[in-house]
Amino acid sequence: MLISIAGSSKKASGFTLLELTIVLFLMGLFSVIVIPQFSHIGEGELHHSARRLSWTIKYLFNEAALSSQEHRIIYNLSDNTYRSAVLETDGNLFSVERIPEDIQLEQNIEFMDMTISGRGTFSQGEVTVRILPSGWIEASTIHLRSADKQTLTVVVNPLTGHCETFDGYREF
């Protein structure tokens, strides 16, 4: 009669070299994919202001098309704020739901200037950009500046409402 001793095994425990190689390869692959996604962390108030402005423009562009009503974005270049409005059928302007009355740029961020195709360049006062329900927004280039003199350029595509952001001051 054979008696076995509990706990003894002739198999070696641990991982093979092939298993370790596969795991290290997968970890490297995931880090190549995931780490660039964190590149926007810490990019600061300037980029945050540009993203928020871009989101607002695209949202209003879509709302104008969905509601079949003209929308407007009104920039106050002197106060570094912007607000949105919808043009009702009676000709009155009303605030757009889901968007705050006045959106303030981040602290230490300001509008440097703004160029609207066919209307010129503005550096102070109020500037209104129309967003038509037919799917068109006035082509515009917005320059933002931080307290440490870094600049960003936000370019609005008139056919899609998509905003593209560039580092530095660019004219288009």
Return residue spans where pLDDT drops below 50 for at least 5 consecutive residues: none
Alpha-carbon Rg, integer: 27 Å
β-strand percent reads 25-35%
Kindly report the name of the CATH homologous superfamily. Answer: minor pseudopilin epsh domain
Query: What do the pLDDT scores average to?
Result: 88
Encode the helix/strand succession as letters.
Answer: HHEEEEEEEEEEE
Number of helices: 2
Protein name: General secretion pathway protein H
Transmembrane segments: 12-35
Keywords: Membrane, Methylation, Transmembrane, Transmembrane helix
Main location: membrane
Can you summarize this structure?
With 172 residues, the chain is of the alpha+beta class. 24% of the residues lie in helices and 33% in strands.
Task: Give a written overview of the molecule.
By secondary structure, this protein is α+β, with helices and mostly antiparallel strands. It has one domain (45-167): minor pseudopilin epsh fold, CATH 3.55.40.10. It is 24% helix and 33% strand. It contains two helices and eleven strands. A hairpin with a 3-residue loop joins strand 5 (109-116) and strand 6 (120-122).
Notable characteristics:
single chain, 172 residues, alpha+beta, minor pseudopilin epsh fold, six-stranded antiparallel β-sheet, five-stranded antiparallel β-sheet, 2 helices, transmembrane helix, membrane, transmembrane, Pilin-like, methylation
